[in-house]
Fold each of these.
Amino acid sequence: MGEPSMSEEKKITLSVIKADIGSLAGHHIAHPDTLAAASEVLAEAKKKGVIIDFYVTHVGDDIQLIMTHRKGVDSPEIHGLAWEAFKKAADVAKELGLYAAGQDLLSEAFSGNVRGLGPGVAEMEFVERPSEPVIIFMADKTEPGAFNLPLYRIFADPFNTAGLVIDPRMHSGFTFEIYDVMEGKAVKLNAPEELYDILALIGTPSRYVIKRVFRREDNLIAAVVSTERLNLIAGKYVGKDDPVMIVRAQHGLPAVGEVLEPFSFPHLVAGWMRGSHHGPLMPVPQRYAKCTRFDGPPRVIALGFQIKNGRLVGPADLFDDPAFDETRRLAQQIADYMRRHGPFMPHRLGPEEMEYTTLPQVLEKLKNRFYKAEEYKVKIRHSEMLTGEVHD
Ligand SMILES: [Mg+2]
């Protein structure tokens, strides 16, 4: 390998790795001692020059490790560091008897990458611009597909993002990389000419999740989302896959205000109580990133940083603004309305999503109680997913 080029040298990696390793008072908030334990590990790594900078925070019961370094995405060293930090935090959680201590650490052994082991990962490598504003969104009590709608509006909807029309660098649009999290496949689709194809997929956020967004003009990475789905990894319900997302802003990308704007609509997302209900996504300042009512409603926070030579300058708590008060009020009205459905869909998730919860265990007990309904003949017979086989 020859000398690294100038741009190679300047490349920075921003890694956001999160996990729920146990929390205080049920699924409420991360305990400060667990944050301190994780911070200690990262502080040591910073001293040794493994990472350039870090910021440890939490949204509800999830610990977030925000790190900058020059080792690229999927670096075994950085993932190993995050794993060690979570392990140390989980040890403290166990000591304190916190709820679901060690919940998201599905494996005992680390094998080079935290993907598939439980933690959620959003990472991007890029050449730092002279001024590099990034927004890190962190949500609790929901799933990665919750960011589909806002990402579409940020990067494909000119009624949200004025820059798509008036900024020449954004005018040729963005490429959406979409994961099929059920099949482990991916597809890249271009906005604006393939908008309807994009929507045909991402309108099913439990299955099709926007992973990355690129500016088409130069393939610059603009956004990345954690796409881990714990239930699909573990094969059973082990908590929701509370997602994180990194979005770069300004200078030929959507402005910070354009990135925040879609969150003024508290759209319905999957998650909330037992990861089994739909509810509004409420944008809140960090001090309100703790879910109480029916373990919700789902929350999202947005922390803004400037990155300078890898240094994390900030954060700014971006939803700490009365301009989002009406959104929060509407979210509460929606929460009331949805709650009144009790155990009924569409408040409770549909059968294909409930498959990974404890509901099938209950339905299993009813299996032998079913008998053939003589006066009701079906032409196309199939086994109903949750009640088992009722046909002959
Ligand atoms: Mg959580």
Note: The radius of gyration is 22 Å.
Amino acid sequence: MNSDDEAFEAFEEYCDEQVKANEAWKLRWPNHCKNCEGAGGFPIPQTYWDPPDYDICVCTDKGKCPRCMEWAWPEDIENMDVPCKFCGWNWGHGKDDAAPQI
Ligand SMILES: [Zn+2]
Ligand SMILES: [Zn+2]
């Protein structure tokens, strides 16, 4: 086996783990937003500065938590930078906020 094969196997293993982690996350948060998978929004790829501009998802835009789909911030735009009071989702700062990406 040459080192390319080994690198490929390590990569496959990594993918397997990511798929499992992603499935486990979805089982744990069955009501999560299917649009953003817990991310709460999407970085806009056309921007080149850091941090990139961020498009808020329809869930957070309505005041719903992207992970548990409860009304975490009902008409309370002022307090939207606080974590979700139902599940603790914290704007991508929490370790388990968004589904692991595959
Ligand atoms: Zn969403
Ligand atoms: Zn929540």
Note: The CA atoms of residues 34 and 99 lie 10 Å apart.
Amino acid sequence: MVRGRFAPSPSGRMHLGNVFSAMLAWLSARSKGGQIVLRVEDLDPARSKPAFVAAILDDLKWLGLDWDERAEDQSRRGGAYEAALNRLREMDLLYPCYCSRDQLHAASAPHASDGRIIYAGTCRGLTAQQRALRPPTRCLRVRVPDDTVAFTDGLQGPQSLSLQGEWGDFIVRRADGVAAYQLAVVVDDAACGVTEVVRGRDLLSSTPVQLWLYRVLGLTPPSFTHVPMLLSVDGRRLSKRDRALDLGELRKSWPPEKVIGLLAWRCGLIDRWEAVSPAELAADFDWRRVRREDIVMELPDMTI
Ligand SMILES: [Zn+2]
């Protein structure tokens, strides 16, 4: 059984980019007779708001993007993440990191191809004696081998990435004691029995470290398909700042089929902008018709 998923973060209202990823995740699973699991990714207590959870669920229903079950919210899954950390600890793969933000962002820090800072391994070789002299921290990193991880993305094709060269030892538990996204998403997708992950291309570079975590934790990985980003006319990624493109605004003037139709047209699923429901699109959905390049969204004309 195919199991796809929605994994919204309740830090704001959905914007067109979130709708686009959710629509393609839904179409991919439903067109194969599969199920959808909904999981609220509220690991960040400062940014997650219950009001946004309610709004996001209501927006998905309004769009016609339904789901079969709701998994436990990430904020309630601390025990499962600690169990996974214990497994990594037993394999001697964890160590505490004492580096400050300033140390990590030092001018000499190596950078990955997308601008992220690669951890230089500063705390990797500390002795127990040296650790005892540092102020305590809950931040944990995982030792990654000098391996390359290769996989075939459902839309972007063959990928290969060096774990040390592009990530270095990455954080699996933050200094505030909360599990890091890379660990939580792997533990949760495995627990939910997810067989396919469809998400934005901004997460493509995270996939190799997640695949590596699946392997060391003895879990079965899903397939991955990374969809294009939606860009504003000035070339920025659409974000929660683009209020005119969030559903709170769009729902004032548009029926749901117009929102779905706009995204389906811009990504190549239909030939012109018309009102269409997700169920209608699922009838002949084919990934080969979806474009892989990022998509510029002009501010939609509210009078249409
Ligand atoms: Zn460190």
Note: Residues 97-99, 122-123 surround zinc ion (CB under 6 Å).
